[in-house]
Amino acid sequence: MQHTPLITTIVAGLVLAFVLGAIANRLRIPPLVGYLLAGVAVGPYTPGFVADAAIAMELAEIGVILLMFGVGLHFSLKELLSVRAIAIPGAMAQITVATLMGMGLAWWMDWSLSAGFVFGLALSVASTVVLLKALEERRLLDTTRGRIAVGWLIVEDLAMVLALVLLPALASLLGSADGDTSARSAIGFREIAATLGITLGKVAAFIALMLLVGRRVIPWLLQVISLAGSRELFSLAVLVIGLGVAFGSAELFGVSFALGAFFAGMVLNESELSHRAAEESLPLRDAFSVLFFVSVGMLFDPTVILRDPWPVLWTFLIIVVGKSMASLLIVLAFGHPMKTALVISASLAQIGEFSFILAALGISLGLLPTEGRDLIITGAILSIFTNPFCFALSDRFASWVKRRNTIKVLEAGESLQQHPPAIDPGLRTQLSNHAVVVGYGRVGSMIAEGLAGTGVPVLVIEERHQLAALAREHGMDVISGNGVKAALISAANLGEARWLFVAIPNGFEAAQIAAQARRLNRELPIIARAHSDAEIEHLKKHGANHIIMGEREIAHGMLDHAFGGGLYCNTPHAA
Length: 575
Ligand code: AMP
Prior knowledge:
Strand order of the largest sheet: 3-2-1-4-5-6
Radius of gyration: 27 Å
Oligomer: single chain
Number of strands: 6
Helix content: over 70%
Bound molecules: adenosine monophosphate
Shape: globular
Structural class: mainly alpha
């Protein structure tokens, strides 16, 4: 078996991760806990089969690249710049606070100042994979909170690029500081300034190259490949762009893989093919990010907890409590709501891959003792393990805060009229004789605009924050959230509505909405959208009375166009 370590690592890692992840899921524990345990099981510190840790780490790196590429595909430059006012100072302040806390712990353990600095820095950066997975699972990537968290992550990533290139220079400076000759210190400082300047210059050159050249060349390349009509070539092109830019940027510009991949995705974001590109890379992304958790689990030596219980506990508390409190306060200080602050602090309450890289470098430069690396790895695995629970806790706290605020608003006797745009799902709309439109995408937005143009009051239910905000901008009343939820449906006052338009693509969800609406109002005309005959049947059974099949309308439209209208005008369009 020894001659195929790559295959055995992939197979053993994935199989065990699958089994333990499925068991965790069954027990209603987040699957990543299962993936981590799979890593511990195939790691060198537990008996039985031992997979190749170095290979697992490299595979995990591919996961990081694909994940960041995927996030880039969701992000435009405008969106990235829109969060800079909080992400840059927020991340810097949080890195400073967390580093100081780490230095405090190092001082307590009698480590040198430089050891404390590297240790603190390693505790201050969150893992890309853990953060993105958490946001993706909770569908937060498209929200303002999600964007701030990603912006924050990018700043941390940049700070790490700088830290990695500056540490060697710093090591020589700290070495010279022992000898205490000011001339050597001055040389050290000059060296640091020069390294800093060169690194910043390289990062800037990379970003400029991507925005000026990449932005044109990459979408063009994908466009050309898509015309070839081969699915396989298209998937390959997506992979080549993601991995190629990440690798090239790391080799040529010293930018991290993750940052390179993020920019590759971002320059593709504006092209129409970006959605297809995202779909193509999704399965690979999932498989490789599972290997990330396995590789972290492999590094974990459980005996550290018994050997150094107090330092382990303090390290864990700094990561999970200290860091999140710091980010919570920083976000609140910037005037963002508690809900945003809670998401950011929960997503940063963990450490991962960057911390390992920093620790490894720190040890090779003689700055960090090996106990430091053990504490960092143990802190990482424990904090990744508890991260889903941090999110659950923050969700609970957020809904408690929200309930309290709602009660306060009602007690203060403020009428809903004073807050027309933001209807809380717990409160009813005041509209009557209105049209309710579920979904404000390509279809729903046209319906809503059309209705508003004729003077009918419109209430939109939309789950994506961005689109809900757009509907508000266009003067509609909006309930934001998933229309399937009973609370949202009853807030829409369907008893007094004139029509319900269910303009969402998922037939099952649409049917559930129609069924609930029908129970509330037997007479209500429910007009729904479908994409197949089976969906039409399903919707009919659940109470929708007019169903429009999108594809049929497109076909009619095309034929009408070909025959200059007239020919198909009399065909029954609705089922
Ligand atoms: P489109 O296919 O472009 O018309 O977009 C459909 C829209 O419906 C998207 O904006 C979705 O966010 C939204 N949507 C899908 N399912 C739901 C749901 N269950 N509740 C509310 N909005 C939804």
